Amino acid sequence: MNRLNHFLWMCRLVSPFSAREQIIADVPRPLSWEMVIAAASAHLIAPFVSPCLEEKQLLDLVPPEARTALEQLYLLNAERNAALTGQIERVSRTLNHAGIEPVWLKGAARLIEGSKWSTMRMMFDLDLWVPDAALEATNNALKADGYRIRTSNDEGGDPHGAALFHDGETARVEVHHHVVPQALARLLPNERLLECARFFDWRGLRVGVPSMGDQILNIASQDLSQMLRGMVGANRPLEFVKLCSEHGVERSVNLIRDAFREAGEAEFAEEYLALASALFGLPGEFTARALVKTFLLRVRNPRLYGLWLAYRDLRLNLEEFPLPAPHVFLEKLMRRTRGALKRRGAW
Q1: Interval 112-134 mean pLDDT
Q2: Which of 99, 130, 259, 264 is geometrically suited to a Cys-Cys bond with 134, CB 3.0 to 4.6 A?
Q3: How much is the pTM?
């Protein structure tokens, strides 16, 4: 069975731009639901599959056992996200009592806004931003409410402080002092975020979320740092195209191109748009192919991709291996080679 065909079909299945007729026409033959579920799970988009099958009236393609598994994956994620929404409410209340109106980022913003696909998005933490002047008060208020840093040597970094955990809550909270890494500060500066953010009453509380355009830039900027490590997955490009479908495709594409060009990352913008088009059918003509080829290599042949990634990392970090100690280089080379060859079932 063709791994790549199954993966690309799964991507089109959950895309907001794919028509039912085309999805049916592109069904892999034979169709392995085990392979579809494995690919969706590896890329953190499994909870999207069942609702998309139902929305596009394709449930008859799914055998009973696979349908039950996909439904459970969605329901479990929706239950967790409901718990996260309650946690967002409690944190917002704590901060409002301290005179702070938090701006919730990423998935938390979608939960607050009630996006129809917020129940499908997998989330591992809750991200919020406050102005520099409110950082100390924010951390003090959360710590007074029972949030703690897990390890004493965790000082956080760029663009947020150390993650805060609460024994009675579902997820860690990350308080951002910048929305994006400072190397990309021109892409989404704090001043712009605050100026464009939308503040409103939610569950009797005052909260803010970034503008739709800034949410799009934030998602894309996350994948820029991931791309540099060769670790781009399908979940953020999926979120990107869903935001584009709400914000308007042409408007979103122009936004990405203009903002990343001003930040000195015009090449990434073209690569990222091409990847979103190749995977999820983002409308438009995009000619860049380097990121697409690397991504598809990862799906088609994970062992070969692992070898490429291992050798690339070594080549980029040769200064770590002094000439008088070649055995150190060879040891790391063998370790990374063994790790790459274990990727057989990876996606």
Answers
A1: 96
A2: 130
A3: 0.88
Partner residues linked to 148 by β-bridges: 165
Domain that holds residue 192: 84-210
What is the rounded distance in angstroms from the CA atom of residue 257 to the CA atom of residue 266? Answer: 6
Q: Angle, nearest 10°, between helix axes 46-55 and 33-42?
A: 130
Number of domains the chain contains: 4
Do 331 and 307 sit in the same domain of this protein?
A: yes
Residue found under tokens 């190397």? 183
Q: In this structure, are 91 and 200 located in the same domain? A: yes
Is-contact 70 62, C-beta < 8 A? yes
| Residue 170 shares a structural domain with residue 258 | no
Per the document, the length of the chain is 347
- The token pair at 88 is 């967002």
Angle at 248 between CA 5 and CA 183, to 5 degrees: 80
pLDDT of 237 reads 95
DSSP for 140-178, please give it: HHHHHTT-B-SSTT----SSB---BB-TTSSSEEEEESS
Residues 190 and 226 placed together within one structural domain of the fold: no
The Cα 242–Cα 239 span in angstroms is 5
Two structure tokens written together for 257: 């191109």
One domain for residues 276 and 306: no
Residue at a domain's end among 176, 195, 210 = 210
| 321 C-beta neighbours (distance < 10 Å), count | 17
Question: What pLDDT digit, counting tens, does each position of 250-274 carry?
Answer: 999 999 999 999 999 999 999 999 9
Give me 238's structure tokens. Answer: 């999926």
Q: Is the pLDDT of residue 342 over 70?
A: no
pLDDT of residue 311: 67
